[in-house]
Design goal:
12 strands, 27% helix, single chain, 357 residues, alpha+beta, four-stranded antiparallel sheet
């Protein structure tokens, strides 16, 4: 790890949180977006004109109401690739403890966090800033820590030991989201007309990456972003946010602010579900704005098939009228791609689409 750290520890390495804490009055040049990519921030921008789906997940457990919820999920997946869930079964104490542990981690002295810094996307535990600090053309106003989380017993010893509560609190949340993901992928499979256990074994043996993101207060939020437009490689991403900041792209290519709902979690379809559904569902393109006054935290729990297992369109969703529109890919293929390419220039999923689709 030490040599990896040295590869990114140049004089220019400064985390977004470090910039905020230093009191910079303006965004450094490397964070300034081209005018065409800047967010439109203002009182007229919001989600008041669009009805984003919110689904009561507890109704899935009622045999009489389950078909209605499956239909709501189908509508949300086709319309947005996105929905929020309430009554999801994860206790608020587990959620709040995870947020507390993340807050304590990001509040650690810089030299403590830098022990985990790396620009190697294959590292099982990695602290960093922007997306790839050493290669990004434009930097993003974000600090993060990412680590593998399933099975928990395999990875937890590699997680940060400071703060001392981190492993216990984040571990409970990681396990709870893994259980929740299995319920969600069953419902999504069912909504596609597949057996609800279509990916059950693959998911149980699959990968889970927890990405804790810190978006500090930014002096010029109108010319910077916390994350650029992208879709996730995963089957699903379950997102916890401490305040509003996420935006999704709707079917008309307009940016829509996702409201903050106390106690709700966000479900985003990833590239693996788009491929599995043969394009019936699309992975959602999203980005993150920053705020002049507030620090925002988010927990993205990204769930996927095992690292080297390829996913391809479900056989039942392919026929002569609807041929396979995608090739196959694995989580590892995505990591190799993002290590070598700028995701702001081309989405990974575009590289697996077949030319005749």
């Amino acid at each position: 790890m030490e040599d990896t750290n040295k590869s990114v520890l140049g004089d220019y390495f400064t985390s977004a949180m470090g910039l905020t804490e230093s009191g910079v009055p303006r965004v450094p040049t490397r964070y300034i977006l081209p005018p065409s990519q800047r967010p439109m921030l203002g009182p007229s921008i919001g989600s008041a004109t669009i009805d984003l789906p919110v689904i009561d997940l507890s109704l899935l457990h009622d045999p009489l109401l389950r078909p209605r919820v499956i239909h709501e999920i189908e509508t949300a997946c086709k319309g947005f690739g996105f929905f929020q869930i309430t009554n999801h079964g994860i206790p608020s104490s587990v959620v709040n403890d995870a947020l507390d542990a993340a807050t304590r981690f990001f509040d650690l002295p810089a030299e403590e966090k830098m022990l985990l810094v790396s620009d190697n996307f294959h590292e099982p535990v990695r602290y960093g800033t922007s997306i790839n600090h050493s290669t990004d053309r434009v930097h993003y106003w974000r600090d993060f820590i990412k680590h593998y989380s399933h099975p928990l017993s395999k990875w937890i010893d590699l997680w940060p030991s400071n703060p001392t509560c981190y492993k216990e609190k984040v571990g409970r949340y990681a396990e709870a989201t893994h259980v929740l993901h299995k319920q969600l992928i069953e419902a999504i499979s069912e909504s596609l007309g597949l057996e609800k256990n279509y990916l059950q074994e693959e998911i149980e043996e699959g990968s889970q990456v927890m990405a804790m993101n810190c978006y500090p207060a930014c002096p010029e939020p109108e010319i910077a972003l916390g994350m650029p437009p992208h879709s996730d490689f995963s089957s699903l991403t379950i997102l916890l946010q401490s305040s509003q900041g996420l935006q999704i792209m709707d079917c008309d290519n307009n940016w829509v602010c996702v409201p903050y709902i106390e106690g709700a979690l966000i479900v985003q379809l990833g590239d693996q579900v788009e491929v599995m559904s043969n394009g019936i569902y699309k992975s959602v393109v999203h980005r993150v704005t920053v705020n002049k006054d507030l620090k925002r935290l988010s927990f993205a729990s990204l769930h996927s098939l095992p690292m080297h297992m390829k996913i391809s369109p479900a056989t039942k969703l392919v026929d002569e009228n609807k041929p396979a529109a995608y090739g196959e890919f694995s989580f590892n293929d995505f990591l190799d791609y993002i290590s070598r390419n700028d995701i702001t220039q081309q989405r990974f999923i575009d590289t697996v689409k077949k030319k005749n689709s």
